Amino acid sequence: MIRAWVRRFFAETKPEPRPAPSPVEQSRVSPRDVGLHDAMHDGWFSGDSGELLKGFAITADDTLLDVGCGEGVATLFAVRQGASVIFTDSEHDKVRDLARQVDAQSDKANLGLVSNSLPLPLADGCASKVVCMEVLEHIDQPEPFMAELVRMGRPGALYLLSVPSPVGEHLQKGIAPASYFQSPNHVQIFSPERFAALVEDAGLVIEHRQATGFFWVMGMIFFWASERAAGRELGGAVRDRIQAPYPPLMESWAKTWQDLLAQPDGLAIKQMLDRFMPKSQVIIARKPHVQEGA
Description:
- By secondary structure, this protein is of the alpha/beta class.
- The chain has helices spanning 2-5, 23-27, 31-41, 73-80, 92-105, 142-152, 166-172, 192-201, 214-229, 248-261, 266-276, and strands at 44-46, 51-53, 56-57, 63-67, 84-89, 111-114, 127-133, 153-164, 205-212, 280-286.
- Helix 6 (142-152) links the parallel strand 7 (127-133) and strand 8 (153-164).
- Helix 7 packs parallel to helix 9 and helix 9 runs antiparallel to helix 10.
């Protein structure tokens, strides 16, 4: 869900002036905006330090590879830090739209690819920073996919990887449509131990781990409940389903969470709930340098 949180945060241009909102509009709270606020509390999207996540800084000297780029959250953040970017996704429209934004904001050599095949058509060691967020759970065979990610990183490259947490996935099994756990959606559920083993067995060294996103576990449960109550069809690909206009229940939940974060002890409560029932688990890892004589 991390990609979805920041669509408006990374808008290409300032929006046109709009009429003053009605009282009803003023009372509405966007789940995406609240989700962005929540993520920033966890160390995401620090433009001042150039860190996509705390501990994962991007500079103008970097080439960032964003595999499964989606709407391009990581790619556009890297562009704003002056980095070169390579971004891939299986959906042509996403790559096309992101390429237009990158071209408008960068004068460096950048590359967008439509691909979901292995091996990816990229050179060994093409990137100093590699991002693959909320993708591995969609992959039938994650081990060779992970090996491809490692191949494309330079010695010393830093990796930012995330997958859904199993607690949130298992809770949704009681209310999400069956298609949510079928291709092209989630076909893997990673325990923390399995996720770490996948990363380490591929040859990376884990530097940081965190689990976040209680807000989004509850938000998605409320979304599925609202869809079912309204009698809407829940089949088909669901990765991009949650868009405005949001169900009133989701907006009410977002307002509740916004109010919580504003409380003096709100951040401590959020952190406790994130540990108890996270949406995503995140790993920052590094590809070792080749030792002399190896």
